[in-house]
Design goal:
This protein is an alpha/beta fold. The chain has 2 domains: 4-173, Thiolase/Chalcone synthase (Peroxisomal Thiolase, Chain A, domain 1, 3-Layer(aba) Sandwich); 177-325, Peroxisomal Thiolase, Chain A, domain 1 (3-Layer(aba) Sandwich), CATH 3.40.47. The protein contains 10 helices and 13 strands. The strands form 4 sheets. The chain has a 5-stranded mixed beta sheet with strand order 1-7-6-4-5, with helices on both faces. β12 (307-314) and β13 (318-325) form a beta hairpin. α3 packs across α4 (91-99) and α7 packs parallel to α8 (257-267). The longest helix has 22 residues, at 218-239. It is globular. The site of oxa(dethia)-CoA has 19 residues, from α2 and α7.
């Protein structure tokens, strides 16, 4: 079977910075509380008129340039997002139009913060099946548009951004080795937006009750995450016959520094091998792992031949992990 890996990578974050000090002016919170409980110092917010598709398109253009490919070479776009520009239509079609990927089909994957891992897994399988040769996988989010700016419990955690990877065949010994995806289905207020879907359409009353915003039971999600992250990583390693001690860099979903530290401890992976940029961007959902990879590349920390594990969890509740040998 052919080896599938990353031919080009790109990331993009909006320019507007929202710091903890900015949050102090809006809700009853403090830089000290946010820093010690989450590790977040600042995040990026989209501007008025800027959509998730704009972020995704910018990241995609960089990934194509990095892969030395043109948009017309892409046969499929898979976008991981839970903050699409519109309720209907798929956001990946907007990106297809913006970058001019005229030969590409496009669809979205909604698996919240696990979306980038799910999308890479689907993309790899489609290439290995022989159906496609070049697939653009994007994780892009504007979660700042979905949070209740009056809710200090939830809103301060999130930010916006995008990352993109061109997937294709790579040389022997490199690329995606294995992955694992899991779901523990819930139908409650653990982590969701209740109104605005088909079961509870957005009415004036529901808007006034602020049901159109993200609601979360932080403690429940925390407990799930510290269990799911190590489990998924171990399963992916097992699937690929990989020894966890051989992992060079772990890229966890950047949701909360305490969750990441707990997962690393359970996996016996030292924090020096764990990539962190949560202080810069907060939780950017499906963009978070890609933004971490993008920063690690810019810093020269991620190099060809490195064995890396990506691991994430999110609404659904979904979780997953993917192991690859970096091929660029
Ligand atoms: O992609 C997945 C998305 N979600 C997550 O990953 C979330 C996972 N959960 C978490 O990260 C944590 O549960 C939180 C960061 C959300 C909360 O941290 P915590 O240590 O579990 O705090 P808590 O919810 O137990 O709240 C402790 C106190 C409460 O006050 P009382 O009841 O003890 O008086 C909260 O009201 O902190 C209060 N609090 C705040 N105080 C200042 C909650 N949010 C804030 C805030 N600023 N922003």
């Amino acid at each position: 079977m052919n080896n599938v890996g990353i031919l080009g990578f790109g990331k993009y974050v909006p320019e507007k910075i929202m710091s903890n000090a900015d949050w102090e002016k809006l809700v009853d919170t403090s830089d000290e509380w946010i820093t010690t409980r989450t590790g977040i110092k600042e995040r990026r917010f989209v501007e008025e008129g800027q959509g998730t598709s704009d972020l995704g398109a910018e990241a995609a253009k960089k990934a194509l340039k990095d892969a030395r490919l043109e948009a017309k070479d892409i046969e499929l776009i898979i976008l991981a997002t839970c903050s699409a520009d519109y309720r209907v239509q798929n956001c990946s079609s907007l990106i297809q139009k913006k970058i001019g990927a005229v030969n590409a089909a496009a669809f979205d994957i909604q698996a919240a913060c696990s979306g980038f891992i799910y999308s890479l897994t689907v993309g790899k399988a489609l290439i290995q099946s022989g159906m496609y040769k070049k697939i653009l996988v994007i994780g892009a989010e504007s979660i700042s548009r979905l949070v209740d700016m009056q809710d200090r419990n939830t809103a301060i955690l999130f930010g916006d951004g995008a990352a993109a990877a061109v997937l294709g065949e790579v040389e022997e010994g490199y690329g995606i080795i294995s992955s694992y995806m899991g779901t523990e289905g819930v139908d409650d207020d653990t982590l969701r937006i209740k109104a605005g879907g088909t079961l509870y359409p957005a009415t004036v009353e529901r808007v006034e009750n602020r049901e159109i915003y993200l609601e979360m039971n932080g403690t429940d999600v925390f407990k799930f995450a510290v269990r799911a992250l190590p489990h998924a990583t171990k399963e992916a390693a097992k699937n690929g016959n990989v020894n966890l001690a051989d992992i060079d860099i772990l890229f966890p979903h950047q949701a909360n520094l305490r969750i990441i530290e707990s997962a690393a401890k359970r996996l016996r992976i030292p924090m020096e091998k764990v990539y962190l940029n949560i202080h810069k961007y907060g939780n950017t959902s499906a963009a978070s792992i890609g933004l971490a990879i993008g920063d690690a590349l810019e810093e020269g920390r991620l190099k060809k031949g490195d064995l890396i594990a990506l691991t994430g969890f999110g609404a659904g509740l979904t979780y997953g992990s993917l192991i690859m040998r970096w091929s660029k």
